[in-house]
Amino acid sequence: MIQAKGYAAQSPESNLAPWDFERRDVGPHDVQIEILFCGVCHSDLHQIKNDWFPGVFPMVPGHEIVGRIVAVGGHTRKFKQGDLAGIGCMVDSCRQCEDCNSGLEQFCPNGVQTYNSMGHDGQPTYGGYSNTIVVHEDFAFRISEKLNLAAVAPLLCAGITTYSPLRYWKVGKGHKVAVLGLGGLGHMAVKFAVAFGAEVTVLSTSPAKEQDAKNLGAHHFVVTKDPEQVAASARKFDFIVDTVSAPHDINMYLQMLKTRGTHITLGAPTEPYQVPAFSLLGGAKAIAGSGIGGLEETQEMLDFCAEHNIVSDIELIDIKDIHASFDRMEKGDVRYRFVIDMATL
């Protein structure tokens, strides 16, 4: 076994704190990665607090992992020692079901998440708030040397979570897209939608974010607390990309969709939507959801980012400041993703 160290929550009531644990030995098709940076996702906080479902404790969060290969198994093909690599939200799947055979490993009913999950070996998985990780090479991604490595980390969750639905709905030139919320997910949705050629509007309760939205490439900005601006946005958008994880009423936003428009849910509020049928029937509107992408699509996204020089806007933090960063994240006080420098572990 490989000795590892990280930050773990021992229970939903405890704070993250230093914890020593073990990783499995490197198998024939595995790679071992020295973790250099790990992004801080809002879902990390949700999971250590058991907001969504009972967790597996002790819990080492983190699924936006980048680092360098320090060991490879005897039968690996994709990587060699010294290569940069990344790991996202999943570390295994059954490889046999319809979804896995369709490149949709993220929907595998027997998929294994990077943390807060049980592996097929019966052992719990531990995430990227740690110094090293071992994973089958199929679930590690090639990372370009051209990009700021710390700013690449959030692409492994926030990046693919926004890239995937925009590609699925073939968003591009001629489409009007609204991005609801300008945080970790929202700022990446703006970058990708603009890169794909869409006309992009940011919907936000905060007028202070208008200049940031324009700097990210957004063409328009709507303050959703202003009734006049909301009224002027009626029946305007082909798609709304909803990145808000706090409870919110989406009925106002459904009125902003064109006929047959789609409200794409990416955020995961702890309270369910309350949507009258007539909010959808009038205009044949749809509410859809999307998560991360599969393995092939995630690599495609990383390659697209390398080609177009797209990374996340980040604040680099010391791991000892993780709870202060969680507090700021819940208040929306981050531009736009915290990333842990694992050298501070």
Automatic annotation (TrEMBL):
Pfam families tied to this protein: ADH_N (PF08240), ADH_zinc_N (PF00107)
Organism of provenance: Flavobacterium zepuense
Entries under InterPro entries matching the protein: ADH-like_C, ADH-like_N, CAD-like, ER, GroES-like_sf, NAD(P)-bd_dom_sf
Domain Enoyl reductase (ER): 11-340
Cofactor(s) this protein cannot do without: Zn(2+)
Recorded superkingdom: Bacteria
Signal peptide residue numbers: none
Ranges in coiled-coil conformation: none
Single Gene Ontology MF annotation: alcohol dehydrogenase (NADP+) activity
Entry annotated with the keyword Transport: no
Record keywords, A-Z: Metal-binding, Oxidoreductase, Zinc
Gene3D superfamilies xref list: Medium-chain alcohol dehydrogenases, catalytic domain, NAD(P)-binding Rossmann-like Domain
Taxonomic lineage: Bacteria, Pseudomonadati, Bacteroidota, Flavobacteriia, Flavobacteriales
The protein, known as: NAD(P)-dependent alcohol dehydrogenase
SMART domains given in the database record: PKS_ER (SM00829)
